[in-house]
Amino acid sequence: MPRKTPIDLVRAIVPRGIPHAGALGCELVSVEKGRAVVRLPWREEFVGNPETRAPSGGVITTLIDTAAGMAAMAALDEMVPIATLDLRIEYLKPAAEGRTIEAAAECHKVTRTIAFVRAWAYQDGRDDPVATASGTFMLDSSDAVLRPPPKKRP
Amino acid sequence: MNLLEELAAAKLARDPAAMAALFPYARYLGLGARLDEAGLVTVLRHDPTHIGNPVLPALHGGVVGAALETAALFHLMWAGDSARLPKIVTITFEYLRSARPRDLFARAEVTKQGRRVAHVSVAAWQDEPARPVAAAHGVFLLT
Fold first, then answer.
1. A143 CB-contact burial (10 Å; exposed 0-12 / middle 13-18 / buried 19+)
2. Which residues on chain B are in Cβ contact (under 8 Å) with A85?
3. Contact with chain A for residue B82, Cβ under 8 A
4. What is the pLDDT of chain A when averaged over all its residues?
5. Is residue A149 included in any domain, yes or no?
6. B44-101 pLDDT, tens per residue?
7. CA distance, residue A83 to nearest chain B CA (Å)
8. Which of A13, A20, A66 to mutate: most B Cβ within 10 Å?
9. Of chain A residues 35-54, which have a CB less than 8 A from chain B?
10. Is the pLDDT score of B43 beyond 90?
11. Do B64 and B124 meet the contact criterion of CB atoms below 8 Å apart?
12. pLDDT at site A144
């Protein structure tokens, strides 16, 4: 059987392999080399401000972090553990209640140690985002446990 | 009572938990607030649905981010007398250590408050405040 590629792994783990993304209801829309799209259907629990009923920024953060991490993973030739180093989110306008939010992420650069990702969250297409984001991910992070154990020297 | 009146009542009663309970997503995540000798602390009570990486296991960066962002908002609402709720403009999260599957605490401070915007720094920890697991810097619109 051929070895699983990072893209296969993204398909396998969204959403059930990421419990918090699964609990919120994240669904993988698409994944290709260095790109991932994840959507989040509306739930009443997402309301941040009960007066405007706009979803909490935290909902968008989780959606973007999930999509960005998957794009970084999908940019790799071989699977190594990754960890978010930083993530900046710009909230351009309030998201509307009652509607699915989608996040598209693109990994535009991978070095030996870092993956750089940009992301867009939107309800009416990527040209009309509710939020934009950029983040960096550490490759082969020190918290690695998915990595095989080092070979013992005799 | 409308939301701002309920918020004012919670502050008058010095009851940060009542403030936190006003916000549906905070309630859903199990985000509460309490006072200690240094001020307001936001608490994310652990729940297995917060996990992002079940192998480590570690909390999802998104739920850690939501806790940091909510801690900044709670801090501004608790300290401020604004007639409107603060609105988040940008926020940068720094993930310093992997967050383990247990309670997470966050404390915010205002770095600079102007008439229209506030810069807020937040630190989150699990074992001890001196070992933060994540930090954030956010800009909030006040008017």
1. middle
2. 94-95
3. no
4. 91
5. no
6. 999 999 999 998 899 999 999 999 999 999 999 999 876 789 999 999 999 999 999 9
7. 8
8. A20
9. 44-51
10. yes
11. yes
12. 44
Minimal CA separation from B39 to chain A, in Å = 23
For residue A8, give the amino acid letter.
D
Any CB–CB contact under 8 A between A58 and chain B?
yes
Q: By the 8 A CB rule, do B122 and B104 touch?
A: no
Compute the average pLDDT of residues A48-72. Answer: 96
Instruction: Chain B: give the shortest CA distance to residue A98, in Å.
Output: 14
Share of chain A residues as helix, strand and coil, in percent rounded to the nearest 5: 25, 35, 40
Tokens 């309970």 sit at which residue?
Answer: B21
Asked whether residue A27 is assigned to any structural domain, the reply reads: yes
Of the two residues B17 and A151, the one the predictor is more confident about is B17
- Residue A33 falls within a domain, yes or no? yes
> For residue A154, is it within any domain?
no
Q: Which domains does chain B have, with CATH numbers?
A: 3-141 (3.10.129.10)
Q: Answer whether A25 touches B (CB < 8 Å).
A: no
Domains: count for chain A: 1
Q: What is the CATH number of the domain that holds A21?
A: 3.10.129.10
Residue B2: how many CB atoms within 10 A of its CB? Answer: 9
